[in-house]
Amino acid sequence: MTNMITLEPLTADAFKPYGDVIATADCDHFMINNGSTRRYHQLANVDTEAEDGRTIISIFQATPLDYPLSVTMMERHPLGSQAFIPLFGNAYLILVAAPTGDLNNDRLDSQTIRGFISDGSQGVNYHKGVWHHPILALTDQDQFLVVDRAGSGNNCEEVHFSDAETRVFAKPEN
Fold first, then answer.
1. Tens digit of pLDDT for each residue in 153-174?
2. Which of 12, 36, 60, 76 would you call most buried, defined as having the most Cβ atoms within 10 angstroms of its Cβ?
3. Counting Cβ atoms within 10 Å, is residue 155 exposed (0-12), middle (13-18) or buried (19+)?
């Protein structure tokens, strides 16, 4: 069992089990507004309707944590997806863990945690129920547009790890 998490580049294929990568690189588009605008259509699907939920848009302002980072907890949103889109184009980190497929009886195995680094032009949309770490900014006072769910029901579950389950990763080099 290793406690170190290796960061890998964020790609649509690698991230597919956890959600959608929101980016325009290599994506189809069509022209709108009399040919002055490219529309990269439906880059992610927002899923917020459980228990009469509604889709909301927020801005999160985040500050970097201390590294090496001990990962002692993860969270998930069982009633809706959650998207993060960087507003300033700064790289940031993403930690996710393999979903079991059972939203009612899902115990996270910290050894399944994967780490990704966004190049700053990529956002992510976590699918409903995907375990992830709260936002991991690398730049002070960074901001993210967040699309997620508001409404009744418990839509944030956290799991905290024992010392033996805690994982660690280093801040990536520039």
1. 999 999 999 999 999 988 887 6
2. 76
3. buried
What is the Rg, in whole angstroms, of the alpha carbon atoms belonging to the chain?
A: 17
pTM value surpassing 0.70: yes
Q: What is the mean pLDDT of residues 36-42?
A: 96
Beta strand extents in the chain (DSSP E only): 7-9, 19-22, 30-32, 37-39, 54-62, 69-71, 73-76, 82-86, 92-97, 114-118, 123-126, 131-132, 136-137, 142-150, 157-160, 167-169
Q: How many residues does the chain have?
A: 174
User: 53 Cβ partners below 8 Å, 6+ apart?
Assistant: 79, 80, 149, 150, 151, 152, 153, 155
Of residues 150 and 2, more confidently modeled: 150
Q: Which two tokens stand for residue 39?
A: 């529309």
